[in-house]
Amino acid sequence: MARLSRAFKRLLVFAFVATVGLLAAAAGVGLLLYAPAHSTIEAPPAELNAQAVEFPSASGATIRGWFVAGQPGRGVVVLMHGLRGNRLPMVRRALALKSDGYAVLLFDFQAHGASGGSRITFGYREGQDAAAAIAFAKSRAPNEKVGVIGTSLGGAAALLSKAPVDALVLEAVYPDIRAATANRVTVVLGERLGVLLAQPLASVLEIVMAPILGVAPSQLRPIDRMAEIGAPVLLLGGTADDRTPPDETSAMFDRAAAPKYIWMIQGAGHTDFEQYAPALYREHVLGFLGQYLRARL
Questions:
Q1: 249 and 144, same structural domain?
Q2: Cis amide leading into 72 (omega within 30)
Q3: What is the pLDDT of residues 146-191, one digit of tens each?
Q4: pLDDT digits (tens, 9 = 90+) for 250-277
Q5: Rounded distance, CA 161 to CA 125, Å?
Q6: Contact criterion met (CB below 8 Å) for 104 and 79
Q7: Same domain, 76 and 111
Q8: Domain containing residue 105
Q9: Last residue within a domain, chosen from 185, 219, 253
Q10: DSSP code string of 139-193
């Protein structure tokens, strides 16, 4: 009996140490994930003919970006970049939109690029930035309909902002933070370890998220916003995406109200869809935006 008692105590000590170690590891991973991704942004490409702008956000950061004037009646499109990125990967989209007559706003989320901010929050504070960007675009083009193209984090932020728009393009947007975290852990650890550890680590990261970021996991569920968009929506996903798998994109689509459209891009992973299939991208996305943003004469 004494031996059993000692073995049980050792088991409890081991479980306690393992739990503390897991929490510490999760906190360390969390701090890395949430660390800012600031970078120097050079002058915009000359062919973009963009004006440097900045505006305040309820996130507490000053948001910096570029505004491109458009033709009257063509609409204005706000471009929202992905996680740990900035406005630069959105330049190709901006050039395509500009050539089609749209006004364009591209900017850096808080804790990204040249904007202020100290912590990436996976859509919460970035949603406040998205709302500020949409309001700024409306102020610069007050008579135009407003569209948004959001990639990954950018799409999540657009949804979480609850800001009304006239058309919304969502590219590889995660449904909720647990799925997003578990998928990325699996990618890092590989399938075998990921199957065992992805969900437990995602759960622990949710625990440390609130004290580090002041954000609850329940506040990071873009899928809950799909039925409330109130505007036409186009969802894009890659059939080989291991961070936002096709079934998650389909689940987002199922929750959306009509009019809604989906384009699953054959062979694409969690990548820049415009660069992966530029001609098809412009056909689908510019066709969708043109249908809902251009003034009818």
A1: yes
A2: no
A3: 999 999 999 999 999 999 999 999 999 999 999 998 898 888 888 7
A4: 999 999 999 999 999 999 999 999 999 9
A5: 9
A6: yes
A7: yes
A8: 44-176+222-293
A9: 219
A10: HHSTTS-EEEEEETHHHHHHHHH----SEEEEES--SSHHHHHHHHHHHHH-HHH
